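Incident review: delayed structure delivery

Summary: a single-chain prediction request sat in the queue longer than the usual turnaround. Root cause was a stuck worker, restarted by the on-call engineer. No data loss occurred. The affected request and its eventual output are reproduced below so the record is complete for anyone auditing the incident later.

Affected input:
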Amino acid sequence: MIKSVKGIIVDKNNYLLQLRDNKKGIYFPNFWGIFGGRVENNESYKKAIEREIKEETNLIVKASKMILATNSKVINFKKKFNTIYYECKVLKKRKIILTEGQRYKFFSFNQIKKLNIIPIDLAAINIHYLAIIKKKYLSKL
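Output delivered after worker restart:
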């Protein structure tokens, strides 16, 4: 099983997304998605997402609230994924330097619903939006 993490980053109620590379063999190529990656040996999920976001964007973040935990097998991939989604607070505003993917952009929740986005990432954003931004269902998290 592959252990992975994803970080939900929000600025002024807009979500930071990455347009994934359009390469064979990667998970959902050419889709928009949340930044993240694999957890290394002897690394906590929280430390992994903080490291991954720094590597991929140059942002310094702190993983705060866990939003969603999934165990899934993606069609056409042989391995199962255990993925934890965290809300990540930017600790220090810095220029975003993209090192992975085609580009990045901040989107409103309504814009995201119209994108070609990784389905489970959309589910995590939806949970975050309802629970944190709209402050509904907060007690159920």
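Verification: The chain is about 25% helix and 40% strand.
Action items: add queue-age alerting; document worker restart procedure.
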